[in-house]
Amino acid sequence: MKDIKYSLLNINDEAELRSAAYIHESAPLNWDPHYKVTDERVLFWVDYLKNLSLGNKAWIMVAKNQKQEVIGLHWLKLEEKFNQLRANIDSLWVHDDYRKNGIGSELKKRGEEWAKSQGAKLISTQVYYSNQKMINFNVKLGFIPQQVEMIKPLK
Question: What 3-state DSSP class applies to 85?
């Protein structure tokens, strides 16, 4: 989509910041329909994002439509794991109305470019097993499934 504009998250724009925080906090709704998004948690992420060292250890890009609404978000953080620098994807989201238009692929491509420029040797992500669309999308983009975390609710 040619009318989509990509830019780094502007932490000085309260509306954009709150939108990113809300998107991130709402992610569990994709695999848990009973999850409750609260203002307290959204404000937690707003504060977190304000204090995050963007550009140095983290990178957040948004995609906006012609109305300047955030319709895509990609969030990476650098971390050391097994003595190797990697970029871990904290969030990747594209609004339902804009999916299948290359926005997610473009966000991931730009994230990978940033990760390489920071010296990361690989990029990692965690995806819920029930989110088969995201698993298939990641595999299509060259990700290799490595580990499955399993849980058992205790009653």
Answer: strand
Residue 54, exposed/middle/buried by CB under 10 A (0-12, 13-18, 19+)?
middle
Model pLDDT for residues 14-53, shown as the tens digit of each residue: 999 999 999 999 988 888 889 999 999 999 999 999 888 6
Angstrom distance (rounded) from CA 59 to CA 77: 6
Whole-structure pTM over 0.90, yes or no? no
pLDDT in tens, 113-138: 999 999 999 999 888 787 888 888 88
**Which residue is it, tokens 């439509």?**
65
CATH number of the domain that residue 109 is part of:
3.40.630.30
Residue 120 covered by a domain = yes
| Edge-to-edge strand list for the sheet holding 5-8 | 5-8, 58-64, 70-81, 84-94, 122-125
Give the domain extent around 122: 5-140
In-domain check, residue 145: no
